[in-house]
């Protein structure tokens, strides 16, 4: 299968470099380029890409807004965001919006090609280590915000609880383990399951909750307050 890819970045040199590098892969076809997030809807409608490689920072419509708008559409292509930072609020916002992962602009070419292939195959570009790093970042933000943020978190917690209530007991246990940043192998060992069974549970969780990646599962578990509870009070 040939992966149809659109590259969106306001820097023409970056676009040219990415297109040259990715276009050299036999199974990737660069079907279009954009210089701003505002161009994305028309490009997607006209070119029907499988994946959009999207810069976060663009002057008119940034990549975050473009990702949110695109992923809200039915049948939307997968999005991989380009960033210069490992973890920040913008990366988290993009992942909440449904981006399948992110890559740094200084990532080696072979790894960017591999990321596009993984996303096109339906696999997120987010390792358990990255998930742990992101959740640590979220926790640090909330510590800095202090108790004043608690009233604003109540509706979000109730909504997260309601969504997680759709899961079967074992799926909920797997979701919690994902929220803790555990790998599939670690989850399998902790819950006495096989790795393929864990993968099946993760896929079912994503489908049931309408999510795109493991970080979205982790954020939902976090929003429900399950990561704050002592072990034994969260269903495990």
CATH topology category name of the largest domain: Rossmann fold
Strand order of the largest sheet: 2-1-3-4-5
Low-confidence region ranges: none
For the residues shown, what is the average pLDDT?
Answer: 86
Q: Quickly count the domains.
A: 2
**Could you describe the largest sheet, including whether it forms a barrel?**
5 strands, parallel
Question: Which structural class matches the secondary elements?
Answer: alpha/beta
How much helical structure, as a percent, in the residues? 40-55%
What is the total tally of β strands?
A: 5
The best one-word shape is globular
Word description of this protein:
With 236 residues, the protein is α/β, with parallel strands linked by helices. The chain has 2 domains: 3-120, Response regulator (Rossmann fold), CATH 3.40.50; 128-228, Rossmann fold (3-Layer(aba) Sandwich), CATH 3.40.50. The chain contains 11 helices and 5 strands. The chain has helices spanning 12-23, 40-47, 63-71, 89-97, 109-120, 128-145, 150-164, 169-179, 184-191, 195-209, 214-223; strands spanning 3-8, 28-34, 51-55, 78-83, 101-104. Strand 4, helix 4 and strand 5 form a beta-alpha-beta unit. Helix 6 runs parallel beside helix 11. The longest helix is centred in the middle third of the chain and has 18 residues, at 128-145. It is globular. The mean pLDDT is 86.
Short note summarizing the structure:
Helices cover 54% and strands 12% of the residues.
